[in-house]
Amino acid sequence: MEHSHLIKPLLDGVYPTIAYGKGVYLFDTNEKDYIDGSSGAVTASIGHGVPEIIEALYEQAKRISFVYRAQFTSEPAELLAKKLSEITKGDVNWAFFVNSGSEATETAMKIAIQHWQEQGIYTKNKIISRWISYHGITLGALSMSGHVGRRERFVPLLEDFPSVSAPYCYRCPYNDTYPSCNLLCALELEREIKRIGKKYIAAFIAEPIIGAAGGAIDPPRGYYEKIKEICEKNDVLFIADEVMTGIGRTGKMLAMENWNVAPDIVALGKGMTAGYTPMAATLVSDKVMAPILKGSKIIMSGHTYSANPQSAAVSLAVISYIEKKDLLKQAEQIGDYLRTQLLTLAKDYPMIGDVRGKGLLLGIEFVEDQQQKRPFPKQFKVTTLIIQKCMEKGLLVYPANSGDEGVGGDAIIISPPLVITKKEVDELIIRLKSALTEVNKELNQIKSD
Ligand code: PMP
Asked: Is residue 83 scored above 70 in pLDDT?
């Protein structure tokens, strides 16, 4: 047989071929069904094959699919920028459209630096991020990412940006407990700004809930309030990377609403178009835009496909679907139900060490010993084994591991489409149970070998 010419994630991996999708289910060309328990890469937030979205895509395609943004603006792009300003709290009233989450965070970084340059401040060029974190795969975005696995090959090419510890209570970087810790992990930001010198720091970037690098790690109460206070005090912009959390995933349009904290810049992606077409955005506050509007009046970034009218029409249709179906409330309610089911599962499966997250962005961390929180040895490749077994049982889950053994462990994200019903959650749990039972068996086998 002729070999495949497609470069897949694992070159020697075997992947089923997708045939079609409907709601929370995907079907391969052998008619095997899968529950999309991760919405792909936390993307397909309204489920697959929604007629309204396909209709919107088709209607726009009939008018115009592509224009170059330096030659034309378009109705869908204008309407989407307005809509995003309306549905987000705070003053992130400007939208710069790009095509991927990596471009959105990298643009956020550039806009933050430009914001200071326009005021004659040329030293504020560094971005502080968190170790662990994930902000994207391009070199700028990767420079801001605390993800060993994705960085190590390219470290010499990356900017040497500073970082602070993640608010990872399950494995507290200070071996402390909340609330007596007094939020040391947030205070570390102030110390790092002092260490580097605030005149060199343009911004601090954080995923509201740490996704790909850690498995839905949500911070303790008061963390973001403290972070925002430290940023303001030190003239450091606060960038919220909402690529994974934005547009409803946690039960709010922006996850930062969970803590009532207003970012200066927001990166969006994934859920913006729910995967129907590629599109992402960098939302910019009036405050950040002000010196740029007074100064050069140009954002020095952009891509051929930026502000693509077809994708903008899709995003508008997705947001309107979320509003019409009240999916924010649904994410919260069904998220609570799913979390309860996962916590119940933890009683029967001691390998479940932690269940965390918000809304329908939930994470499970797996451990060899529940009491001691001892991680599995790396060579057991537990995350890979879980993903494989789930897939065999017809359940898709998302691996979340930074590759830094010293910080995190084996974790997965469970983030089904926001439209998932209780009955479908029950089916998801049945499949997960069945996969974990087999994982247990295999691990016992490995240990006894
Ligand atoms: N930021 C976050 C928080 C993400 O989760 C991701 C993707 N996992 C990215 C940025 C990068 O997005 P993309 O893969 O679309 O470039």
From this structure: yes
| Alpha-carbon gap, residue 208 to 247, rounded angstroms | 13
Q: Long-range contacts made by residues 147-150, C-beta under 8 angstroms, separation at least 24?
A: 147/212, 147/213, 147/402, 147/403, 148/402, 148/403, 148/404, 149/401, 149/402, 149/403, 150/403
Residues within a 6 A CB radius of ligand 1: 41, 100-102, 105, 134-137, 207, 211-212, 241, 243-244, 269
List, as one string, the DSSP characters of 135-195: --SSHHHHHT---HHHHGGGGGGS----EEE---GGG-TTS--TTTTTTHHHHHHHHHHHH
Count the alpha carbons within 13 Å of 324 in the hemisphere toward its beta carbon: 9
CB 271 within 8 A of CB 246: yes
Distance 98 CA to ligand 1 centre (A): 13
CA of 279 to the centre of ligand 1 (A): 12
Q: Is the pLDDT of residue 197 over 80?
A: yes
pLDDT of residue 1: 58
Q: Could you tell which of 38, 241, 243, 401 is best to mutate to test the pocket of ligand 1, judged by most ligand atoms within 8 Å of the CB? A: 243
CB 297 within 8 A of CB 271: no
**Which residue CA neighbors atom 14 of ligand 1 most closely?**
101
Long-range contacts of 50-54 (CB under 8 A, 24+ apart): 50/321, 52/317, 52/320, 52/321, 53/274, 53/276, 53/314, 53/317, 53/318, 53/321, 54/276
Output the pTM of the full model.
Answer: 0.98
280-284 sheet: strands from edge to edge: 94-98, 280-284, 265-268, 237-241, 201-206, 126-131, 163-165
CB 254 within 8 A of CB 331: no
* CA–centroid distance, residue 34 to ligand 1 (Å): 23
What pLDDT score was predicted for residue 326?
98
Q: What is the DSSP letter of 198?
A: G
Does the pLDDT value for residue 132 go beyond 80? yes
Q: Tokens 């008061």 map to which residue?
A: 222
Which atom of ligand 1 is the closest one to the Cα of 267? 1
Enumerate domains of the chain plus CATH numbers: 18-49+326-448 (3.90.1150.10), 52-324 (3.40.640.10)
Quick: pLDDT tens for 208-220: 999 999 999 999 9
Looking at residue 448, what is its pLDDT? 85
Query: 441 C-alpha vs ligand 1 centroid, how far in Å?
Result: 34
Q: What is the pLDDT of residues 241-263, one digit of tens each?
A: 999 999 999 999 999 999 999 99
